[in-house]
């Protein structure tokens, strides 16, 4: 179905990123020239990837890699495989990575990549050939000191192993630090798999503490039960919070007394769906997000909270586990409703933070135990939450604007210190 023009613009991720950038830059009083530097990607690359398919025919896939900023360190960001990947989307996600890394104050800039393909209809060997040829095309623009990819939508630790191996073959030496999110046996980090969900749990606990809500009294609705939402739900449940509803693409389940996420995951493994779970009742997936709750965790995809539905939300706190789950137009409505938003560039930064730890460990050749990883992650997430909330209160702005202002300020400061090479 064709969206109205106004909604097309609202859902465009690059325009959403630009709107938030413009607001933060104006409030910071950044001069026009510096705004142009901060807004413009440092490098955009489009590659066309010829691949021989299993049946012998040749196909050509289109891939992208965008490095938004290298001011604070190497570009950092995932690679996604999906049929609807666009350059606008990759641009937006790369800029979000710049701001995300700056918010949690780790020494990376932002990058992002993607290949237009449908992994659901590709064999493992076809995916490997696409990955390796895509990597070969990027050999001159990625590397531990320049651009460090990671898994994203429809890519995983196996994909990263293929990238690391391809890059290493070209460099004639094993270079584990070229990617993060690798298998443990190839230089991966303990704690990486659940890092994004753990980060969501940590900042949610901080928000509950701010509003004097005991975790045992907190009712949570989780949208998306994948790597982020599923792990966030389990960790929040373990911390004492009550998961009253879980929403997935094929349905939603509800229990006012709480759902055991481990039991729900077991049920999904056995049946292929979260629906008809014995420990909860099935409800309308399109209405579950609007249940009264203390915390809503949108951890599925972009643009699920928009100008058409934001007024229906009854959450006290929103912890954005996904990238870009709220449109810029919806922000205005949430602000009017007084909903406390933990923005995506803070809430889901646990993943990139532990990716940073993995990169450090690879470069050191010395690996940490999971307790150390989780402890250092908690320290960074707690400090970053305080930084954003204090900035919001000091400048009388909302959390998302504060997070962008803080991030822009840090990147702009680095650029000013470095100067412009001529």
Brief rundown of the structure:
This protein is an alpha/beta fold. 45% of the residues lie in helices and 18% in strands.
Keywords:
Rossmann fold; five-stranded mixed β-sheet; single chain; 422 residues; seven-stranded mixed β-sheet; alpha/beta
Detailed description of the structure:
By secondary structure, the protein is an alpha/beta fold. Among the domains are: 41-174, Rossmann fold (3-Layer(aba) Sandwich), CATH 3.40.50; 195-347, NAD(P)-binding Rossmann-like Domain (Rossmann fold, 3-Layer(aba) Sandwich), CATH 3.40.50. Helix content is 45%, strand content 18%. The protein contains 14 helices and twelve strands. It has helices spanning 5-11, 13-28, 32-39, 87-103, 124-137, 157-171, 195-210, 229-238, 261-271, 328-337, 344-347, 350-364, 370-395, 399-418; strands spanning 43-52, 58-67, 75-82, 109-116, 147-151, 219-223, 242-248, 251-254, 281-283, 293-298, 315-319, 340-342. The chain has a seven-stranded mixed beta sheet. A five-stranded mixed beta sheet has the order 1-2-4-3-5. Helix 2 (13-28) crosses helix 14 and helix 7 crosses helix 13. The longest helix is centred in the last third of the chain and has 26 residues, at 370-395.
